[in-house]
Amino acid sequence: MQAWQVHQNGEPSEVMVLGEVERPVPGDGQVLLKVRAATINFPDVLMCRGEYQIKPPLPFTPGVEICGETEDGRRVIGNPALPYGGFAEYVVADERGLFSAPESLDDAEAASLLIGYQTGWFGLHRRAALEAGETLLVHAAAGGVGSAAVQLGKAAGATVIGVVGGADKVGVARELGCDVVVDRRTEDVVSAVKEATGGRGVDVVYDPVGGAAYTQSTKVVAFEGRIVVVGFASGAIPSPALNHALVKNYSILGLHWGLYNTKNPKLVQHCHEQLTELAARGAIKPLVSERVPLGGAAAAVQRVADGVTTGRVAVLPSLSSSENGAAA
Predict the structure, then answer these.
(1) How far apart are CA 76 and CA 139, in angstroms?
(2) Which of 256, 264, 273, 300 has the most neighbouring CB atoms within 10 Å?
(3) Does the pLDDT at position 322 exceed 60?
(4) 3-class DSSP state for residue 98?
(5) What is the pLDDT of residues 118-153, one digit of tens each?
(6) Please, where are the H alpha helices in 182-241?
(7) What is the DSSP letter of 200?
């Protein structure tokens, strides 16, 4: 079968190599899946660089989120068992970690429902207890993780302020449902958010960026607000001033979605059921900005690394180069 492999760490476009490899063999409790779609996540970038907390042995195949087909024809979503990641024709995955792909979503959309939307659901509902009528600020609102949080926030009845980087992403954030969009490249984020909230600030901040975005969050979070720390796409991990949290009376909440798979897997299943229901009634629909063939995976991962994509980019092994294009 064909698969991308990383033999040494570095930038995705430089270290990902496409070649013929042996089809993986399932171990105990695992199943073989034909990959129907694999979405690109920032952890794929970090694993290529050797900077992710999980470091699969070299060589490995990136791709941590897929929609696949079982040998008996069931369409499922899940996380491949590394080092056999999703940028390949076949993967193996732990059977207990698989979920039925929602019928309301196509393969690329279904694959996108797992990491970003589960992270958003746990972050907003389990950790921050977001309520209808509250104001939610989402950093990187046009990205794969941020776009999911925007839709989930709107579905929960919140007013959503999206922060993006660039005029092209402003329109995307508005189409996703943001009530207010702030372009951090041309506007002062703190001033714009305070103006939009009448000086009150926001109840919940969803931050997958870190660095300067976190600092901005502390300046706009309201009394008894909650900052949900999801990741550090900026590459800068902030050191929070706890005296500031004390004086201003806000909470700093960490969210590591993967822990729920080991600590409370029943809650992960419940989350999937909630997301499936939201998708079925059209309250959420993953934004898939590009669908690329298997041969285009390395270049696509590099675009995600460079921060020039919106929503999710999906790799479809069955897609021919002539069919390559952006989603409608």
Answers:
(1) 30
(2) 300
(3) no
(4) coil
(5) 999 999 999 999 999 999 999 999 999 999 999 999
(6) 189-196, 212-220
(7) S
3-state secondary structure of 118: helix
Burial class from Cβ neighbours inside 10 Å (0-12, 13-18, 19+) for residue 283 reads middle
Distance CA 66, CA 314 (A): 9
Task: Check which CATH number belongs to the domain holding 248 and give it.
Answer: 3.40.50.720
Could you tell me if 157 and 234 lie in one domain?
yes
| Sign of the Cα pseudo-torsion (17, 22, 23, 25, in order) | negative
Q: Which residues of 241-266 are buried (b: 16+ CB within 10 A; e: fewer)?
A: eeeeeeebebebbebebbebeeeeee
DSSP one-letter string for 125-190: IIIS---TT-EEEEETTTBHHHHHHHHHHHHTT-EEEEEESSHHHHHHHHHHT-SEEEETTTS-HH
| In-domain check, residue 269 | no
Distance CA 213, CA 231 (A): 11
**Is residue 281, in this structure, part of any structural domain at all?**
no
Give 104's strand partners.
none
Q: In which domain, by residue range, is 31 found?
A: 2-113+286-326
CA 13 vs CA 3, 90, 289, 309: distances in Å: 15, 22, 20, 15
Q: Tell me the per-residue pLDDT of 184-230, one tens digit each, with 9 for 90 and over.
A: 999 999 999 999 999 999 999 999 999 999 999 999 999 999 999 99
Compute the C-alpha angle 319/325/328, nearest 5°: 110
Q: Contact, 303 vs 289, CB < 8 A?
A: no
The tokens for 215 are 């600092």
Longest Cα separation, the chain: 60
The DSSP code sequence of 31-88 is: EEEEEEEEE--HHHHHHHHT-SSS-PPSSBB----EEEE-TTS-EEEE---TTB-SSB
Distance CA 71, CA 99 (A): 15
